[in-house]
Specification:
By secondary structure, this protein is mainly alpha-helical. It has one domain: Four Helix Bundle (Hemerythrin (Met), subunit A) (Up-down Bundle). It has 9 helices and 2 strands; from the N terminus they run ααααααββααα. The protein has a two-stranded antiparallel sheet. Helix 1 runs parallel beside helix 7. The longest helix has 23 residues. It comes from uncultured Acidimicrobiales bacterium.
């Protein structure tokens, strides 16, 4: 990712983080805090905790704890997701749910206050690093910051839709470029995990996927 592209993804990520902060503070989210979400074995509060951590401040955690030296293991957001999803276990999924539930236990108000503070720190930290700065992400794998932020934008877009569906509300308007990016990365993940030919068929021919596919 070049410097211009990295700058754009920085802003997309920060714009999404602001939308998340506002969404998690809404009364409708608080009213549904202890209700099941659309995600398996996860309450709305747990989903909110996952959004706050995984969609926003985990970036600063990685920046603060990473030695910038070392190899680049994931060259793109699609490679990151495809590799991790091929290796993820039931215990890994449970650990994600547990982290979200632990943050949900703080309550809506305290979680939002924490998110506001952590987002301010993220802004400061991002302002001091280069676009190609290396961080260690899940499993200690090396990744360029700009490429990792693409994964966070995907998380933001996907889980904000999960949150809207969980409370029975209209989707929050995410930046158009962020939504297009999430769709593009999703297609790349599918090609990496299942092969190019199956993805072409799923996208353009009937009988290989359901719902909005094929697109033509």
């Amino acid at each position: 990712m070049d410097e211009r592209g990295a700058g754009q993804i920085f802003q997309l990520y920060l714009d999404g983080a602001e939308i998340i902060t506002g969404a998690l503070a809404e009364p409708a989210v608080g009213e549904a805090w202890h209700r099941p979400s659309v995600l398996e074995d996860q309450l709305v509060g747990g989903l909110a905790g996952h959004l706050a951590r995984g969609g926003v401040w985990v970036v600063e955690d990685y920046l603060r704890t990473t030695d910038a030296a070392g190899p680049i293991d994931f060259e793109s957001a699609a490679q990151y997701f495809a590799t991790l999803m091929s290796a993820v276990t039931a215990d890994d999924h449970q650990a994600i749910r547990d982290r979200g539930a632990a943050l949900a236990a703080l309550g809506q108000r305290e979680l939002v206050e924490m998110l506001v503070g952590r987002l301010a720190a993220v802004r400061t930290t991002l302002g001091a690093v280069a676009p190609d700065h290396r961080i260690s992400v899940s499993g200690g794998n090396g990744m360029r910051l700009g490429d990792y932020l693409v994964t966070r934008v995907v998380e933001q877009v996907v889980h904000m839709d999960d949150l809207a569906r969980s409370i029975g509300g209209e989707p929050w308007p995410m930046p158009e470029e962020a939504v297009r990016l999430a769709i593009r990365v999703g297609a790349e993940i599918g090609a990496l995990r299942h092969g190019a030919a199956p993805m072409v068929r799923a996208l353009y021919r009937r009988g290989f996927a359901d719902g909005p596919l094929p697109v033509l």
